[in-house]
Amino acid sequence: MIEVRNLSKHFGDKVAVDQLSFTVKKGEVLGFLGPNGAGKSTTMRMITGYLPMTGGSVNIGGADVVEDELAAKSRIGYLPENAPLYNDMSVDGFLRFAAELRQVPAGQITEAVDKAVETCFLQSVRQQSIDTLSKGYRHRTCLAQSIIHDPDVLILDEPTDGLDPNQKHEARELIRRMGEDKAIVFSTHILEEVEAACTRAIIIDEGRIVADGTPDELKNQATHAGVVVTRLKGLAGSGIKQELERLSEAGSLKICDSGDDNICARVDPAKGKSSEDLSSAIFHMAVDKNLTVEELRIEEGRLDDVFRQVTQSDTATGKA
Amino acid sequence: MGNAITAVLLDFALPALVVSAVFLALLKFVMPPAVRTVFKREVRSYFMSPIAYVCVVTFLLVSNGISFWFGGVLERGEADLYMSYFQYLPWFFIVVAPAVGMRLWSEEQRLGTMELMLTMPIAPWQAIVGKYLAASVVLFSMLVLSFPIVLTVNYLGSPDNGVMLAGFVASLLVALSFLSITSLVSAFTRSQIVALLISIGLCLFVWLVGLQPVSDSLLKLFPSMPWISSFVSGLSVLTHFNELSKGILVSRDLIFFLSFIVFCLFGTAVGLRLNRS
């Protein structure tokens, strides 16, 4: 549905987006992550045809954004950053305006507006003037505008920004539901959102993709992902430590707490061994030695650790 | 008296109606739906906010006031509005057209709604034309609402209503040219005030270069090249306004105004694109 090839954007000497390539298929929700100024909004603005690109191409469902601008734009629903709106219109008037511009046939406009109002929970403010709306309602009005023509492609720039936790939850649910039959790209700073709503995530930094995968794949890239954390009781700490080190599945080992008859350790799997192998080996060892297993778990990577790893390393080493 | 009213009706009400009808028909049947949608939104926005009313009322008060007090419509004893009325009108439009048009694109950029509009399936020129036409309606309504002065002179004497109509047409074209300058300027700034001031300056410029002293001094500066002087005055809105308002509908002048407006609107598109990249 969305095909981005070698997309670049230069502002003077500054390279904002550098040879970005990715595709989003129907049924996919792509989370677009990156620190501020990484080029997320710039990329989205080029995908939607707002910013002219310096190089590369964007194809929306077969229509090139530059060559076949109007066809491409008519397939996209776009929520710009900060949800800009015409303050002098009512919610209803604005959505009608958007429906007309987005080429909803005249006979179906009322129906389309009704549906969008319902989807975005705008019933109570429908006739209200936009400049009297709270931030949450403004955001939802702008979101309603983007889905009013039931587009195949949705580009949402920070769709949950400024919403309260309940609204955030609703918005994520909405994105996930819509993602079942659309191709969605949304950018965010909030990493739980990626886990909650995305089927795939891309982390970009300084205009380049630094990580790409499903949320789980990304989490596994965290340095401490797969570490087995265990707390065993029944022997002196040093004794248990020796037993642990003797396991062929165990690699390096870190003691977080050691007592007279217990130990807490973080154990890396040895090369070629999986975390599951290691944890069952530890369990069997504990049974053999008659130890009590108080804790035994495989540490999951956390997205924000991955995020920090991949976005900080570049700045630190001054690559790019 | 009865004759006067018939004359006014025939010469003004009818053309104004015809112009409006043609305009609406064009909008309805010829203009792409996107232009119509933008146009409708903008017109509503103008007349929902105080801008349109403030501009219209100020314009009417000042233009009528000046021509009665300073132009001496009544004292001249001529049933001709050129000297007393039409020669002042463009001066008001130098301020009024930018005041009406200053928000066209600057506001759109400041609020970020430009991003919303230009990512919808609408070509930039359609948005530019739609917004421009909406602002034109405000200026057009000012001139339509100036009709009492026509009634007044018809009541007082028997003027040449055809010439007067030409005066209105010429004034409208000048106003529209100034509006297109404002549209161009507003594409380059997010601030309405900046757009207003720069537009007034530019309108004043394209107006003043047509004044006799300017062409005279140009002639003195380049005595061997008289074409420079005539070229510059040929570029001025004033020269073409004078021709038209004398009642001579020359296609050359009409083409001048039309190309002037098209050029500025094209410049608006270029400006918006430059601003985005």
Structure description:
The complex is a heterodimer of chains A (320) and B (277). Chain A has helices spanning 40-47, 69-74, 91-101, 109-119, 135-147, 165-178, 191-197, 215-220, 237-246, 275-288, 303-317, and strands spanning 2-11, 14-24, 29-33, 55-60, 63-64, 76-79, 153-157, 183-187, 200-205, 208-213, 228-233, 250-258, 262-269, 292-298. Chain A is of the alpha/beta class and 320 residues long. Chain A has two domains: 2-220, P-loop containing nucleotide triphosphate hydrolases (Rossmann fold, 3-Layer(aba) Sandwich); 228-298, Alpha-Beta Plaits, CATH 3.30.70. In chain A, the strands form three sheets. Chain A has a six-stranded mixed beta sheet with strand order 6-7-8-3-9-10, sandwiched between helices. In chain A, α3 crosses α4, α3 runs parallel beside α5 (135-147) and α4 packs across α5. Mean pLDDT of chain A is 86; it is low at 315-320. Chain B has helices spanning 2-30, 33-48, 50-69, 73-76, 82-86, 89-101, 103-111, 113-118, 124-144, 147-156, 161-186, 192-208, 212-221, 226-235, 237-245, 251-276. Chain B has one domain (2-276). By secondary structure, chain B is mainly α. The interface between A and B is medium-sized, with 31 and 24 residues.
